[in-house]
Structures are given as C-alpha cells and as structure tokens.
Design goal:
The complex is a heterodimer of chains A (about 400) and B (about 300). Chain A has about 400 residues and is an all-alpha fold. Chain A has helices spanning about 15-30, 35-55, 60-85, 95-110, 115-140, 145-165, 175-185, 190-215, 225-245, 250-270, 270-280, 285-290, 295-320, 330-340, 355-375, 380-405; strands spanning about 170, 185, 250, 320-325. In chain A, helix 2 runs parallel beside helix 15 (about 355-375), helix 3 runs parallel beside helix 10 (about 250-270) and helix 8 (about 190-215) packs antiparallel against helix 9. The two termini of chain B are about 20 Å apart. A 6-stranded mixed sheet of chain B has the order 6-9-10-3-11-12, with helices on both faces. In chain B, helix 6 links the parallel strand 9 and strand 10 (about 220). Classes of the chains: A mainly alpha (about 400), B alpha/beta (about 300).
Chain lengths: ~400, ~300
C-alpha cells in the first residue's frame, strides 16, 4: 500500500483505523489539548451529585426545562465566544439583550406595532450597538473592556428609560413569540426524522471528506471511525429524543440555539471569515501583513456579538412573557460570559469553539436548576457559579502550561 | 543572463511566467539604481545601486544603521524611495505598497516571520489567500499545494496539520519561506533568516536558500552572519552609512575583507597609506557571477 502524501515523513507517528484515532485523542489530551473534556466531565459530576441529592434532577421534565432555559443566554454566550476568539471582551451583552427586549416590547405593546416589526427593531438595536462598538474600537482605539463597560451601564439606563414608570411590560399572551419560545416542542415521529436527518448529513459530510482526501492522495479517516462516531451520534440523539419525549420533547428555542451553534461552528472552521477570526485572535499583526482585512473582522464580530445578544434578549422576553427592569441585568451578563469560558474558549484569543457556548451554558443552567430543585438559596448559586468559573479558568491555565511544554501552543 | 545549471528548472514556480518573455522561464531580474531615501534630517540611503539576477543569491550586509532594512523595505514596498529607479526584467516599476510588491512577484520574509501560532501550517501558508470551493475553504487542495511547496524545498515538516507553536525555529522559518512562495514570486527577500537559530537549523535554512536559487528565483539575503553569507551567496553587497561600500563575488572574498568593508577600516587604512580606496564603484559590476559553486 502506498503511503498518503501527508504521511510520508518517517518521523510522523502513523495512526490507522479506530485504534489509531483513539490513540490520537489520548495523545492530544496528554499534551494539554483538553478541548471540551473538562466540561463534559464537570457536567457528569454535576449530574451525579444532584441526582444523588434528588433524583428529580434527571427527570425528563427537569432536562427539558434545563435545555429550554439554557437557550436564550446560550445565544448571547455564542456572541461572547466570537469576541473572546479575537481576544476582546463585551461586558454589555446583558444590557444590550435587555434593551433589545424592551424596544421590542414597547413597540409591540405600547405602540401596537406588529410582532415582526418589534422583533426586527429589537434585534436591529443590537446591530447598531455593534456598529458603534466597532467604530469605537477600530477608529478611536478604545479598549473593548472600557466601551463595553460604558455600554453595560448606559444601556441599562436606556432599558429603565424606555420602560418608563410602569417598570414591567407584559407581552400579549397570544403572541407568536411566546408561543414559539415557551410552548413549542419537537417530539414524536418528527423528532426522530430530524435526528435521522442530522445523522445522515453527518455521515454524508464525512464520506464526502474521505472521498475528496483519497482522491487527492491524502490520508483519510477510516470508515470504521466515521461509522462509530455516526453510531454514537445517532444513539445519543435518539436516546435524548426518546427521554425528552417522555415529557414535552425538544423545545424549539433550544433547537434554534443548537442550529445557531452548529452554523457558527461551520462558519468558524470552514469559511475564510472564520479562518481570519482565528488568525486575528492569534496574531493580529501577522494577519494584517498577510492581507487579512483586520478592521472588517472586528466590525463583523462586534456586530454579530451585539446582534446575538439582542436576539437572545428578545427570545428570553418571549420565554418569560414580559420585560422588566431586571431583564438582562448582571446575572444574564455574567452567565453568558462565564458560559463561554467554562465551555473552553480561551480568554486570550485565538482558541475556542462555538460548541463551548452550548456546553458552558448547559453546565451553568444545570447547576442553577439543580440548586433550585434541592431548594438552596440563590446566594449559594452565585457562589457555586463563581467557583465553577474559577475552576474552569484554572483548568485552562494548567492545560496551557501543558500545551506549551508539549508544543501545542 | 547566464543561467546556473538548474536541475529543477522544470519545477520552477515561475514556469507559468513564460508569457513575460523570460527565456529561462525562471525568476525575475531586479535592478536598482540611484535609490535614495530620507527620513527628516537623516539621509538613510543615497545613490544605492544593486542588481539581482534570476537564480542568484545576493547577500546584503552592513553594520547596524547601514540602511539594510530601509533598502529591503523599499524593495518590499513598505517605503517609497525619494530618488532612483527600480527595474524588474528591465522595465521600470514603482512598488506601491506590500501588496503591489507581491503582485509584481517580490515576496519578503521579514525577521519576525509573522506566523499565527494557533493556526496549523496549511492555514498559515494560505492566510489571506485561502482557496475556496463554493464559498467553503478548499482544505484538500490547500493541503496538497502545501505538501508540494514543502517538498520542493525538501523541507522537514512532519505534518502540515499541527499548529505552528509545535514547530522548531528552523521549521517556522521554513514555513515562512514556503509561504512566500505561494504567490509564485520571482524574487524572494529573506531578512535575517538565520538569526536566533541553532547550528543544525541554520544549516537547514541555508540549504533552503540554495534550493530557492536552484529553482531559478532571485534571492536577496540580509544577514549579519559572515559565514552564512559566504556559504550561500553568489555576490555580496556591502552597505555602509547608507551607501554602496563594496561589492564582492563570494568566491573571491574573505571574512576579513568583508568585515573591513563593513566597518570601513580598509578604506581608512588605505587612505592613511595613500592608496586608492577599494570598494565603491570601482569593483562592483560582477553581476553575472556564475552561481552554484557554493551549492
């Protein structure tokens, strides 16, 4: 058998088949490239602890709720992943989400505009904020920490101002937004068909990649590995669909979040834009000299972050059926930022994944939900969340040291 | 143009440049004459002349502040010269910006390499020039091309899918040089490629420079290291205080002579002894030096 073009170097340790793939994973872990493993282990520990305290924690009802309530903040956190990839930060996502929700609520309830217009305006607020941020960053060179801190304060003021003296605006109960965010679930046959479709797409993508690489005389992952991965995916999603289906099923809100995460992941890994985001986060000067339009990358990322924040705020309003003065305050903000970091996106830029938003927010939501079920005060929740965040960053720092000593950067 | 004995001409990156009327189908010939550059009150370069033929390695040496970097930046399009003319294959050109230099076929590898540590070799090679298929990155084609480039340089990179952070200094230099070849340039400028490298890695990079010459490229090598320069260069241009101080054929010169020309010691000595100065314009035009004796 001829050796594929990319494996010809005799110093390269050959790895073949499923065993080789597992071996590769093990080596990567030992080298400090932990990826999402710490979060997954953390999630398992959290589940075990709360299950032993109260078995209701792992009931279908509880899991459906965890996923549904994780979604809006998860969408905000997805934007945080993007700014973190550039090595920047946006502290104002919570306030922007509240402001977007308030604009939507005021237009729909007080001004009797259509829901579509209200939502568009709410999300549009995010676009505008992002553009202003990008301008402040690229033209004036203000650090993102400072202008987003200003935004955190300022937009919370805007929220209070447009809510006016009432303080709380209830969305009309028959609103399509509430229907979508609160009462729509995918279950039964449709859900299984969707799972089959996802697995089929995964397999098709994998086979396409294998074929392309074989044709180009490059090494390709083995079909056995692909088959095992696809089997695990099908089993996992199928089982979850069944278990969630015992209660209400997959909430539409979570499915939207998942679609955004998968879409963002593909954008980051498979498009020129995503490659440039990582490049700017890794070495901005190198990226600029290579012809990357660094300014545009900053603009696109700041706009996407604020837009996702506003979208998350609008959806959260639908889920809670109202917008109040407390919408999108400190809690939302810090949850969104903590989720991205807990999920494994580095604070220092250039390293992370869209999936870290999903994993991180599920961990945080699981803790919140578990403490609620066990009946602990929210004071404890803040302390636990803080400890988990610290632990996640500590793991990242230790892994970074292992990476630098094993040459994985 | 006396072409060196090219064993790999057919693999030349510029073979598709035959349309430019270059009979050898190889690199570009660059010539500078009377180039000057002034920063405020400082005349950084005055009346610099220099030629690089295809398939030739020209070393640019000089003490700190001699104007090497300024000259390199002018050729790379970072600075615009105040005076003088730059010709490529005999045609006068103006190099408008780094992008313009690249489009003219002049690639520069700066000393700090400018690689993204978090990206893998393929991503770095094609950064800013990604190949796409239906809007999606064409990883397969880029990986194939990456291997082709690295093979041509006989580069020792174990895998193109490991992040740059995992590579040694010499391997990073290799990647940076390979990246300069992605756009099929005719002239490659290497700014201190062996600074901060170990013995074995330096040898690796010097072998790489020879291989660039074998493929018919014109190479400008900026270096402080006299033994490196003597090992690979065909000709050596010495700059001192922003002027051409001397030009040597590498085969005819010793380290002592080079050092003397760089420091200006020889001219002072000769002047003191009442002899005619060496270097300068008297001894320069050795453009068609046969390449290859050092390879």
């Amino acid at each position: 058998m001829t050796v594929a073009a990319d494996l010809a170097d005799e110093r390269l340790v050959q790895s073949k088949g499923l065993g080789g793939a597992l071996d590769l994973v093990w080596r990567r872990l030992r080298g400090g490239d932990l990826g999402s493993l710490p979060v997954v282990i953390g999630l398992i520990v959290i589940c075990a602890v709360f299950y032993s305290l109260d078995p209701r924690f792992l009931s279908s009802f509880s899991l459906v709720n965890i996923l549904a309530y994780a979604a809006p903040i998860g969408i905000i956190s997805l934007g945080i992943v993007l700014v973190l990839l550039l090595g920047e930060i946006d502290l104002s996502v919570g306030s922007v989400s509240g402001m977007g929700a308030a604009v939507m609520a005021v237009l729909v309830v007080k001004e009797s505009q259509s829901l579509v217009l209200g939502m568009a305006a709410g999300v549009g607020v995010g676009v505008v904020v992002g553009l202003v941020y990008a301008l402040l960053y690229t033209k004036l060179g203000i650090p993102s920490f400072v202008f987003s801190l200003a935004g955190l304060l300022g937009f919370q003021g805007v929220l209070l101002y447009i809510l006016g003296s009432d303080g709380t605006i209830n969305l009309p109960p028959n609103s399509g937004l509430i229907e979508f965010a609160r009462f729509s679930y995918l279950t039964g046959t449709a859900a299984y068909v969707a799972v089959a479709l996802v697995v089929a797409l995964y397999v098709a993508g994998g086979l396409w990649k294998v074929r392309q690489r074989k044709r180009a005389d490059l090494s390709a992952p083995s079909l056995v590995t692909l088959g095992v991965k696809a089997g695990l995916l099908a089993l996992g999603l199928g089982w979850l669909t069944w278990y969630l289906g015992v209660d209400r099923g997959w909430s539409y809100l979570f499915l939207l979040f998942a679609a955004l995460v998968v879409g963002m992941d593909l954008m980051l890994r498979r498009t020129r834009w995503g490659r440039h985001v990582f490049a700017v986060g890794g070495n901005e000067e190198a990226a600029r000299r290579s012809g990357v339009k660094v300014g545009r990358i900053y603009v696109s990322v700041f706009v996407l972050t604020s837009t996702l924040a506003a979208l998350g705020g609008v959806l959260a309003a639908g889920q809670q059926t109202s917008v109040s003065q407390a919408t999108g305050t400190t809690d939302t903000n810090l949850m969104a930022i903590a989720a991205a970091v807990i999920g494994g996106t580095s604070l220092f830029g250039g390293r992370g994944s869209a999936y870290s938003a999903m994993l991180g927010i599920i961990v945080l939501q699981a803790i919140q939900s578990g403490l609620n079920i066990v009946g602990v005060d929210s004071s404890v929740r803040f302390m636990v969340t803080g400890a988990v965040l610290l632990l996640a960053v500590a793991i990242d720092s230790i892994a970074r040291r292992a990476r630098s000593s094993s040459g994985r950067g | 143009m006396t072409s060196p004995d090219l064993t790999k001409t057919q693999a030349s990156p510029a073979s598709d440049r035959a349309g430019r009327g270059d009979p050898a189908g190889s690199g570009l010939a660059l010539s500078l004459s009377g180039v000057g550059k002034r920063f405020g009150a400082v005349q950084a370069l005055s009346d610099i002349s220099m030629e690089v033929a295809a398939g030739e390695v020209v070393a640019l040496v000089g003490d700190n502040g001699a104007g090497k970097s300024t000259l390199v930046k002018i050729i790379a399009g970072v600075y615009q010269p105040d005076a003088g003319e730059i010709r490529l294959d005999g045609k006068p050109v103006s190099i408008a910006g780094p992008r313009g230099a690249q489009n003219l076929g002049i690639a520069t590898v700066f000393q700090d390499l400018a690689l993204c540590d978090n990206l893998d070799v393929v991503a770095n090679l094609f950064l800013g020039r990604e190949r796409r298929q239906l809007g999606v990155l064409d990883e397969v084609s880029m990986e194939q091309e990456a291997w082709r480039l690295l093979r041509r340089l006989s580069a020792k990179i174990p895998s193109v899918r490991i992040p740059i952070a995992a590579l040694s200094g010499g391997q990073r230099q290799t990647v940076a040089i390979a990246r300069s070849l992605v756009g099929d340039p005719g002239i490659v400028i290497l700014d201190e490629p062996t600074a901060a490298l170990g013995v074995a890695q330096t040898a690796e990079v010097l072998a790489l420079v020879r291989r660039l010459r074998e493929t018919g490229l014109g190479v400008i090598l900026v270096s402080h290291n006299m033994s490196d320069v003597l090992a690979v260069a065909d000709r050596i241009e010495v700059l001192r205080l922003g002027r051409n101080a001397a030009s040597f054929r590498a085969a005819d010169v010793s380290v002592e002579q080079l050092v003397a020309a760089i420091t200006g010691a020889s001219e002072r000595d000769r002047a003191e002894r009442g002899e005619a100065p060496i270097g300068g314009t008297q001894q320069t035009k050795t453009v068609d030096a046969p390449a290859g004796e050092t390879s």
